[in-house]
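Have a think about this chain, C-alpha cells included, and walk me through the fold.
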Amino acid sequence: MKNHNFHEKELLEEDFESDQRNIMDYIGIVRSNLLPIILIFIISMIVTYIYIKNYTTNYRATTIVKIDKPRSGILESQSLSLNVNLSGTLERFLLNQIEVMKSYYIRDIVSRTILDSMKTVQNLKGFTFVTTKVGENEYKLLSQEALRRKLLENVKIDVKKNVDAVTVSLEGLSFHEIQMVVNIYSNVFVDYSKEINKEDLINVKKFLEAEKDKKYNELSNSEVALEDFQKRSGYVALDNQSKLLIESISNYDEKKNMAGIELKATDNELMNLKKESDKSDPNLYDYVSGKVAEPYITELQRQIAELEIKRDIDLSTTTETRVKDKINTDARTKIEMLRKNLEEKTEVMRVGLLSETPEDKRQLSQKIFDGKLRASSLQTTIRSITDVLKKYESEFDKLPSKSIELAKLERKRKSNEKLYLALEEKYQEATINERSRLGYAELLDPGYDSIGPISPNKNLILMSGIVIGIALGLGFAFGRNYLDKSIKSPDQLEAAGASVLSWIPSFKELVEVHSPETDFIVELKPSSTVSEAFKALRTRIQYSKIEDEPIKTILVTSTIPSEGKTIVSTNLAGSFALMGKRTLLLDCDLRKPRIHNLMKGDRYPGLSDKLFENVTFEDVIRSTKLENLSYITSGTIPPNPSELLGSLQMKHLLEELKKMFDMIVIDSPPFISVTDSEILFNVCDGTILVSRANLTPFDAFIKTYKRLYRINPRNILGCVLNDFAIKSSYGYYYNYYYYYSKPSKTGKKNLT
C-alpha cells in the first residue's frame, strides 16, 4: 500500500510564489462572493436573534435517592461463597432500579398521586406541566394517561456519579411545579422499595422456617440412628483420620445442601415468574431462558466454581500463613478475571435482551434473566461440589471395616447439624431484617434548592450564530467556486499525490433500487463486489499505522455534502463488526444526521443528549441485527454543534467509548462547511476523506486533503473514491475486482 504522505514537491517544498498564489486565490474567492457571504451572515444573525427572543426560560429540579444493593441470594453467607452471586455489580443494580423507576407501574402511581394532590388547587395558572390550556387563562388537569406518558418523556433518571444513588430531574417553566413532581416521583419509589422489601423478607422467612423444621427432623433422626448403632456395635469412637475425613466431607455437604436450598428457592421464584409471564406472553419465559442457556456462560461458571473449590482444598492442606496468602492471591486473580469476563458477556446479553423486549415487559424479563442466571450458577456449583464429594467418599472404602458404618452415620449427623445451624442463623437474620429494614431506597435530597434558570445561554448562542454564519458563508463561497470541477477516477487522485485507500463501486451496478434499505450493503449482500471493497478498505486501514498504536477511532468526513460519507462510515463499521471487533458507529453530524435513517431507529436520545448528561449509555447505544455492531445517533440537534463537539464532555465520552469498543467509526459533517470535522480530526486516531466520482470538485478535495495533512500528517489515513462506475471506461478496475471477489477453488474469496 502506498505511503500516506504527499510528495515532498507538493507539500514540504512549496515555494513562496505558490503560497502567494494560493492566498490570492482565497482572497479572490471571498471577494467575488462577498455579497452572498454577508447575506448568509445577516440571515444567521437574524435566525440567532429570533431563536434567542423566542427561547423560553427553563428551570431544573433534581432529587437524589440513595439505593443500597440487597443481597442477591436469600442464603448468602461465608459458608456459601461458591459462585452464586451473579446479579451484577452495584452499578448494574442501580441501572436496574432506574428501569423500575421508569416502569409503567411506578409512573401510574406517580401520576395518580400528583393529580390527587392538585385537586385542592383553585388556580391552575402557572402549572404548565400537569395542566393543558383549554381557553384564555383557562387550564385543566391532564388525564392520568396523558400525565403518565408525559412523565416518561420528560423526567430524567440517571446514576449520580461517585455516589450509590440516582437522580430524578425535570425541566420546566415553574420551579415550584417541577420540584413537586420530582419529589412525589422519588417518594413513590421509596415507598415501593419498602413494600417490595417487606414482601421479600416475609417470603424468605417462611421458606427458611419450613426448611429449618425439615432439617431439624433429619438431624434428630440421624442422631437416633447413630446412637442405636453405637449401642448395638459397642463401637463408639472414630480415629483421627476418620474424623478429619468426615469434617471435610460435612463441610462440602453443607455447601452443597445450602446451594440446593437456594436453588429450590430460585426455582420457586422462577415458577411464579413463569405464571406471571404466561398471562401476557406465553413465549416470553422460554425466550429469555434460551438466552441464558449459552454454552460459554455455563463454561465460565464451571471454571469459577472449580477454582474456588480447588482454593478451599489447597487451603485445607496447609497451616502456614505465607502459603495460604499465596494460594488466596493466585486464586483471587484468576477468579476475578473470569468473573469480569462473565459479567461483560452477561451484560451484553442482558442489554440485547432488554432492547428487544417491549417496555411493559422489560422488568419481568430482567427478573427472569437474573433468576435463570442464578439458577444456572447454583446448578454448576452443585455439580462441582458433587464431583469433589465423590473423590472424598472413595476414601471411605479405605477405612477399617468396623468403622465404615459408624463413619457414614457420623457424617450424616454432622452434615445435618451444620446445615440446620446455618438455616437457623439465616432464619434469625431474616427475623431481624423483617423488623428493622424499611427498604433499600432513601430520599437524600428533596430538591428544594433552585440554581436559577438553566437556559438559554444567550452569549453562547450569539457566538455560535456568528461562527456558524461566517462558516456557512465561507463554505458557500468555496463550494460555489469549485462546483464545476469533479473527480473522475482513482488515477486522478493518485496523480495529485493523494493516497487512495479504496474505491467503492457504484451501488447501481448491484441493486435496482437505490434507497436507505440498500445502503447498508455489507449486511444486505455481504458477498457482493461492493462489500468486498469495504473489506479491502478495512484491511488497509488496519495496516496503515504499523509502527504506532492500533487505530481505535476513525473519522469519516468529506469535502462537500452528498459524497456518501455516511454510507462509507456505516459499511466500514459493518466490515469491522464482521471480523469480530466490537464496533460502534457514532453519528457526529449534528447538522444533517442520517445514521438513524439507515439503521431504521429513533434519533432520540443520542449523542447531544448524552453530552448534556440527560441520558445514560444504555439509552443511546443501540444494537443492530449485525453481531458486534452498535450505533449512537446524533440525538437532539443543538444550537452549537462545533462547541459541543469540542467540549471536554465530548473528549471524556470518547475515552469511555474506547474502553467499551474495539473500533469506533465516526460520521461527521463535511469538512469545508463547518469546523465540526476539524475539531474531531484532532481527537481521532485516523481520518478518511471521502470523495464521490463525478460530483466532488477536484480542487476543493485536494485543498482539503492538504489542509488535513498540514494539521497532522500522521492522522490522515487517506481517501476513498465513492460511487465509482467500474463497468464504464475503466474496465480494468472491474476485471480486478471480479477476480479478487470471486470464490477460489478452495471456496475462499481472494480478497481479504
Remarks:
- The first helix runs from residue 16 to 32.
- Confidence is low (pLDDT under 50) at residues 1-18, 74-88, 510-514, 728-752.
- The radius of gyration is 34 Å.
- DSSP finds 26 helices and 14 strands in the chain.
